[in-house]
From TrEMBL:
<feature type="domain" description="HTH cro/C1-type">
    <location>
        <begin position="7"/>
        <end position="61"/>
    </location>
</feature>
<dbReference type="InterPro" id="IPR001387">
    <property type="entry name" value="Cro/C1-type_HTH"/>
</dbReference>
<protein>
    <submittedName>
        <fullName>Helix-turn-helix transcriptional regulator</fullName>
    </submittedName>
</protein>
<dbReference type="InterPro" id="IPR010982">
    <property type="entry name" value="Lambda_DNA-bd_dom_sf"/>
</dbReference>
<keyword id="KW-0238">DNA-binding</keyword>
<dbReference type="GO" id="GO:0003677">
    <property type="term" value="F:DNA binding"/>
</dbReference>
<dbReference type="InterPro" id="IPR049639">
    <property type="entry name" value="RstR"/>
</dbReference>
<dbReference type="Pfam" id="PF01381">
    <property type="entry name" value="HTH_3"/>
</dbReference>
Length: 109
């Protein structure tokens, strides 16, 4: 999926108009339409502002990742990365156990 398709899809999913998004990033609404139609590509700075405004990762918008990480998830990961290694490992172990249990529940549901 191209940048424009992901931008359009994410913007609509979040129920944000082109005009609202343009205001959030300090641009004019017509340029958002041009980005969505892949007529022009935004600069890295503008793409970053778009990702922040839509609360998704820049990697997702640019196609480097197919996982649409929301802002809350990114904030949690960032906080986790800043912890001491021992605390980090304990939390990862706990998360892995919770994920394993959730997958098991889904398998038998």
């Amino acid at each position: 999926m191209l940048f424009g398709e992901r931008l359009l899809s994410t913007r609509k999913k979040k129920k944000i108009s082109q005009d609202e998004l343009a205001k959030k990033i300090g641009a004019h609404a017509p340029i958002i339409g041009r980005y969505e139609r892949d007529e022009v590509k935004p600069s890295v700075e503008i793409a970053t502002k778009i990702a922040e405004a839509l609360e998704v990762s820049l990697d997702y918008l640019t196609g480097l990742s197919d996982v649409e990480l929301d802002k809350n998830t990114v904030d949690i990961i960032t906080s986790l990365q800043k912890l001491k290694n021992e605390d980090h490992q304990h939390i990862i172990t706990t998360i892995n156990a919770l994920i394993r249990d959730a997958k098991a529940r889904n398998t038998y549901a």
